[in-house]
Amino acid sequence: MNILLMGLPGAGKGTQSELITNDYHVVHISTGDIFRQAISDKTPLGLEAKKYTDAGNLVPDEITNGLVRERLGHEDVLENGFMLDGYPRTIEQAQALDSNLDKLNSKLDYVFYIDVDPDTLKDRLSGRFMCSECGATYHKLYNPPKVEGVCDACGSHDFYQREDDKPEKVGHRIQLQMDSIRPILEHYDSLGLLHRINGEQSIENVYRDVRNVIGE
Ligand code: AP5
Ligand code: MG
Ligand code: ZN
User: Percent of the chain beyond pLDDT 90?
Assistant: First the structure.
Protein backbone atom coordinates (compact mmCIF):
# COMPACT_ATOMS: atom_id res chain seq x y z
CA MET A 1 0.00 0.00 0.00
CA ASN A 2 1.30 3.45 -0.97
CA ILE A 3 0.00 6.56 0.77
CA LEU A 4 0.54 10.31 0.50
CA LEU A 5 -0.11 12.37 3.58
CA MET A 6 -0.49 16.03 2.72
CA GLY A 7 -1.31 19.07 4.80
CA LEU A 8 -0.06 22.54 5.70
CA PRO A 9 2.62 22.95 8.41
CA GLY A 10 1.19 21.74 11.71
CA ALA A 11 -1.80 19.95 10.15
CA GLY A 12 -0.79 16.72 11.89
CA LYS A 13 1.10 14.77 9.21
CA GLY A 14 3.80 13.56 11.58
CA THR A 15 1.29 12.79 14.34
CA GLN A 16 -0.94 10.73 12.04
CA SER A 17 2.12 9.03 10.50
CA GLU A 18 3.04 7.59 13.89
CA LEU A 19 -0.47 6.10 14.21
CA ILE A 20 -0.70 4.82 10.64
CA THR A 21 2.72 3.12 10.61
CA ASN A 22 1.88 1.40 13.92
CA ASP A 23 -1.12 -0.28 12.35
CA TYR A 24 -0.17 -0.67 8.71
CA HIS A 25 3.62 -1.19 8.61
CA VAL A 26 4.24 0.97 5.58
CA VAL A 27 7.59 2.77 5.48
CA HIS A 28 7.29 6.36 6.75
CA ILE A 29 9.24 8.77 4.56
CA SER A 30 9.19 12.39 5.79
CA THR A 31 11.29 14.72 3.65
CA GLY A 32 11.32 17.18 6.57
CA ASP A 33 12.73 14.50 8.91
CA ILE A 34 15.36 13.52 6.31
CA PHE A 35 16.49 17.14 5.99
CA ARG A 36 16.58 17.65 9.79
CA GLN A 37 18.65 14.47 10.23
CA ALA A 38 21.07 15.56 7.48
CA ILE A 39 21.37 19.00 9.09
CA SER A 40 22.15 17.52 12.48
CA ASP A 41 24.71 15.15 10.88
CA LYS A 42 26.21 18.13 8.96
CA THR A 43 26.28 16.18 5.67
CA PRO A 44 26.58 18.06 2.33
CA LEU A 45 22.81 17.60 1.87
CA GLY A 46 22.22 19.02 5.34
CA LEU A 47 24.42 22.07 4.80
CA GLU A 48 22.54 22.87 1.59
CA ALA A 49 19.07 22.14 3.01
CA LYS A 50 19.65 24.29 6.11
CA LYS A 51 19.74 27.45 3.96
CA TYR A 52 16.10 26.83 3.08
CA THR A 53 14.54 25.02 6.04
CA ASP A 54 15.72 27.54 8.65
CA ALA A 55 13.93 30.31 6.77
CA GLY A 56 10.84 28.18 6.23
CA ASN A 57 11.39 28.06 2.46
CA LEU A 58 11.13 24.97 0.27
CA VAL A 59 14.31 23.08 -0.58
CA PRO A 60 14.78 23.18 -4.41
CA ASP A 61 12.95 20.46 -6.36
CA GLU A 62 16.15 18.99 -7.92
CA ILE A 63 17.45 18.14 -4.45
CA THR A 64 14.17 16.91 -2.99
CA ASN A 65 13.13 14.86 -6.04
CA GLY A 66 16.52 13.13 -6.23
CA LEU A 67 16.36 12.21 -2.58
CA VAL A 68 12.83 10.75 -2.76
CA ARG A 69 13.54 8.89 -6.02
CA GLU A 70 16.51 7.22 -4.39
CA ARG A 71 14.58 6.32 -1.22
CA LEU A 72 11.62 4.83 -3.13
CA GLY A 73 13.94 2.30 -4.77
CA HIS A 74 15.08 0.78 -1.45
CA GLU A 75 14.09 -2.78 -0.71
CA ASP A 76 12.09 -2.01 2.47
CA VAL A 77 9.89 0.37 0.51
CA LEU A 78 9.46 -1.96 -2.45
CA GLU A 79 8.44 -4.75 -0.07
CA ASN A 80 6.18 -2.91 2.40
CA GLY A 81 4.93 0.16 0.55
CA PHE A 82 5.41 3.75 1.67
CA MET A 83 3.74 6.66 3.33
CA LEU A 84 5.17 9.95 2.10
CA ASP A 85 4.77 12.77 4.66
CA GLY A 86 5.28 16.27 3.26
CA TYR A 87 6.07 15.27 -0.33
CA PRO A 88 5.06 16.29 -2.98
CA ARG A 89 4.82 19.98 -2.12
CA THR A 90 5.05 21.48 -5.60
CA ILE A 91 3.31 20.40 -8.79
CA GLU A 92 6.76 19.62 -10.27
CA GLN A 93 7.39 17.23 -7.37
CA ALA A 94 4.02 15.57 -8.02
CA GLN A 95 4.94 15.07 -11.68
CA ALA A 96 8.37 13.68 -10.72
CA LEU A 97 6.70 11.29 -8.28
CA ASP A 98 4.22 10.06 -10.91
CA SER A 99 7.03 9.34 -13.33
CA ASN A 100 9.25 7.66 -10.71
CA LEU A 101 6.40 5.40 -9.64
CA ASP A 102 5.75 4.49 -13.29
CA LYS A 103 9.37 3.44 -13.65
CA LEU A 104 9.10 1.29 -10.52
CA ASN A 105 5.83 -0.22 -11.81
CA SER A 106 4.18 1.13 -8.70
CA LYS A 107 1.20 3.39 -7.98
CA LEU A 108 -0.48 5.46 -5.29
CA ASP A 109 -3.43 3.97 -3.39
CA TYR A 110 -4.55 6.88 -1.18
CA VAL A 111 -3.84 10.59 -1.03
CA PHE A 112 -4.93 12.26 2.22
CA TYR A 113 -5.19 15.98 2.72
CA ILE A 114 -5.54 16.91 6.39
CA ASP A 115 -7.53 20.11 6.23
CA VAL A 116 -6.89 22.60 9.06
CA ASP A 117 -7.56 26.33 9.37
CA PRO A 118 -4.39 28.54 9.33
CA ASP A 119 -5.20 30.04 12.75
CA THR A 120 -5.31 26.59 14.29
CA LEU A 121 -1.98 25.75 12.65
CA LYS A 122 -0.16 28.61 14.36
CA ASP A 123 -1.45 27.46 17.71
CA ARG A 124 -0.31 23.89 17.07
CA LEU A 125 3.19 24.83 15.93
CA SER A 126 3.83 27.19 18.83
CA GLY A 127 3.02 24.45 21.37
CA ARG A 128 4.85 21.61 19.63
CA PHE A 129 7.91 19.87 21.05
CA MET A 130 9.75 16.71 20.08
CA CYS A 131 11.69 13.91 21.74
CA SER A 132 15.41 14.29 21.04
CA GLU A 133 15.93 10.52 21.18
CA CYS A 134 13.14 9.07 19.03
CA GLY A 135 11.49 12.08 17.38
CA ALA A 136 8.01 11.49 18.86
CA THR A 137 5.88 14.64 18.54
CA TYR A 138 3.97 16.28 21.41
CA HIS A 139 1.95 19.40 22.10
CA LYS A 140 2.01 21.16 25.46
CA LEU A 141 -1.82 21.40 25.55
CA TYR A 142 -3.25 18.97 23.00
CA ASN A 143 -0.90 16.01 23.23
CA PRO A 144 1.39 16.09 26.28
CA PRO A 145 3.37 12.99 27.33
CA LYS A 146 1.45 10.78 29.81
CA VAL A 147 4.08 11.49 32.46
CA GLU A 148 5.31 15.07 32.36
CA GLY A 149 8.86 15.34 31.03
CA VAL A 150 9.11 11.68 29.96
CA CYS A 151 8.69 10.49 26.35
CA ASP A 152 5.85 7.91 26.08
CA ALA A 153 7.61 6.11 23.27
CA CYS A 154 11.20 5.74 24.55
CA GLY A 155 11.39 7.07 28.13
CA SER A 156 13.82 9.88 27.26
CA HIS A 157 13.77 13.13 29.27
CA ASP A 158 15.23 15.19 26.48
CA PHE A 159 13.01 17.35 24.27
CA TYR A 160 13.56 20.12 21.73
CA GLN A 161 11.63 22.67 19.68
CA ARG A 162 12.14 23.10 15.96
CA GLU A 163 14.07 26.09 14.61
CA ASP A 164 11.30 26.79 12.06
CA ASP A 165 8.58 26.82 14.75
CA LYS A 166 9.69 30.24 15.97
CA PRO A 167 6.67 32.58 15.73
CA GLU A 168 8.29 34.81 13.07
CA LYS A 169 8.81 31.84 10.70
CA VAL A 170 5.46 30.09 11.10
CA GLY A 171 3.28 32.57 9.19
CA HIS A 172 5.63 32.53 6.20
CA ARG A 173 5.73 28.71 6.06
CA ILE A 174 1.95 28.44 6.10
CA GLN A 175 1.40 31.12 3.42
CA LEU A 176 4.07 29.69 1.10
CA GLN A 177 2.67 26.19 1.28
CA MET A 178 -0.94 27.25 0.90
CA ASP A 179 -0.04 28.61 -2.53
CA SER A 180 1.95 25.60 -3.71
CA ILE A 181 -0.37 22.87 -2.40
CA ARG A 182 -3.52 23.91 -4.31
CA PRO A 183 -2.58 22.61 -7.80
CA ILE A 184 -1.34 19.34 -6.27
CA LEU A 185 -4.71 18.75 -4.63
CA GLU A 186 -6.45 19.43 -7.95
CA HIS A 187 -4.10 16.98 -9.66
CA TYR A 188 -4.87 14.08 -7.30
CA ASP A 189 -8.55 14.97 -7.14
CA SER A 190 -8.77 14.66 -10.92
CA LEU A 191 -7.21 11.20 -10.64
CA GLY A 192 -9.85 10.21 -8.06
CA LEU A 193 -7.23 9.56 -5.37
CA LEU A 194 -7.80 12.49 -3.01
CA HIS A 195 -9.47 12.10 0.40
CA ARG A 196 -9.98 15.31 2.36
CA ILE A 197 -9.91 14.69 6.09
CA ASN A 198 -11.26 17.21 8.59
CA GLY A 199 -8.15 18.01 10.65
CA GLU A 200 -10.03 20.22 13.12
CA GLN A 201 -10.84 17.26 15.34
CA SER A 202 -9.00 15.37 18.06
CA ILE A 203 -5.96 13.35 16.99
CA GLU A 204 -7.97 10.13 17.56
CA ASN A 205 -10.89 11.27 15.41
CA VAL A 206 -8.66 12.38 12.56
CA TYR A 207 -7.08 8.94 12.64
CA ARG A 208 -10.50 7.26 12.79
CA ASP A 209 -11.43 9.05 9.54
CA VAL A 210 -8.17 7.93 7.91
CA ARG A 211 -8.77 4.35 8.98
CA ASN A 212 -12.31 4.45 7.64
CA VAL A 213 -10.88 5.18 4.20
CA ILE A 214 -8.09 2.60 4.27
CA GLY A 215 -10.13 -0.11 5.95
CA GLU A 216 -8.69 -3.11 7.75
P1 AP5 B 1 8.25 19.34 7.48
O2 AP5 B 1 9.01 18.77 8.59
O3 AP5 B 1 7.46 18.45 6.63
O4 AP5 B 1 7.33 20.50 8.09
P5 AP5 B 1 5.87 21.02 7.74
O6 AP5 B 1 5.24 20.68 6.48
O7 AP5 B 1 6.00 22.46 8.02
O8 AP5 B 1 4.96 20.23 8.70
P9 AP5 B 1 5.21 19.99 10.19
O10 AP5 B 1 6.12 18.85 10.41
O11 AP5 B 1 5.55 21.30 10.82
O12 AP5 B 1 3.72 19.65 10.69
P13 AP5 B 1 2.96 18.26 10.72
O14 AP5 B 1 1.85 18.34 9.74
O15 AP5 B 1 3.86 17.09 10.68
O16 AP5 B 1 2.28 18.41 12.16
P17 AP5 B 1 2.56 17.58 13.52
O18 AP5 B 1 2.01 16.20 13.40
O19 AP5 B 1 3.96 17.74 13.97
O20 AP5 B 1 9.21 20.21 6.57
C21 AP5 B 1 10.16 21.09 7.17
C22 AP5 B 1 10.91 21.86 6.11
O23 AP5 B 1 11.66 20.94 5.28
C24 AP5 B 1 10.04 22.64 5.10
O25 AP5 B 1 9.69 23.91 5.60
C26 AP5 B 1 10.99 22.74 3.92
O27 AP5 B 1 11.98 23.69 4.13
C28 AP5 B 1 11.65 21.36 3.92
N29 AP5 B 1 10.88 20.38 3.13
C30 AP5 B 1 10.22 19.28 3.60
N31 AP5 B 1 9.61 18.63 2.60
C32 AP5 B 1 9.88 19.33 1.46
C33 AP5 B 1 9.51 19.18 0.10
N34 AP5 B 1 8.72 18.16 -0.30
N35 AP5 B 1 9.97 20.08 -0.79
C36 AP5 B 1 10.77 21.11 -0.41
N37 AP5 B 1 11.14 21.32 0.87
C38 AP5 B 1 10.71 20.44 1.79
O39 AP5 B 1 1.56 18.38 14.51
C40 AP5 B 1 1.82 19.73 14.88
C41 AP5 B 1 1.46 19.94 16.36
O42 AP5 B 1 0.04 19.84 16.53
C43 AP5 B 1 2.07 18.91 17.32
O44 AP5 B 1 2.41 19.55 18.51
C45 AP5 B 1 0.93 17.88 17.55
O46 AP5 B 1 1.03 17.25 18.81
C47 AP5 B 1 -0.30 18.77 17.42
N48 AP5 B 1 -1.46 18.11 16.80
C49 AP5 B 1 -1.45 17.25 15.71
N50 AP5 B 1 -2.70 16.87 15.39
C51 AP5 B 1 -3.54 17.52 16.27
C52 AP5 B 1 -4.97 17.54 16.45
N53 AP5 B 1 -5.80 16.82 15.65
N54 AP5 B 1 -5.48 18.30 17.45
C55 AP5 B 1 -4.65 19.02 18.27
N56 AP5 B 1 -3.30 19.03 18.15
C57 AP5 B 1 -2.74 18.29 17.16
MG1 MG C 1 5.95 16.82 10.35
ZN1 ZN D 1 11.25 9.38 22.60
Answer: 94
- Residue pair 26/1 in contact (Cβ under 8 Å)? The answer is yes
Supply the DSSP string of 123-160, one letter for each residue: HHHHTEEEETTT--EEETTTB--SBTTB-TTT----EE
| CB-based burial label for 182 (10 Å; 0-12, 13-18, 19+) | exposed
Nearest CA to ligand 1 atom 55: 142
Ligand nearest to C-alpha 161: 1
CB 108 within 8 A of CB 87: no
How far is residue 69 from each of residues 77, 82, 116, 151, 159, measured CA to CA in Å?
Answer: 11, 12, 29, 33, 31
The pTM of the full predicted model, rounded to 2 decimals, is: 0.94
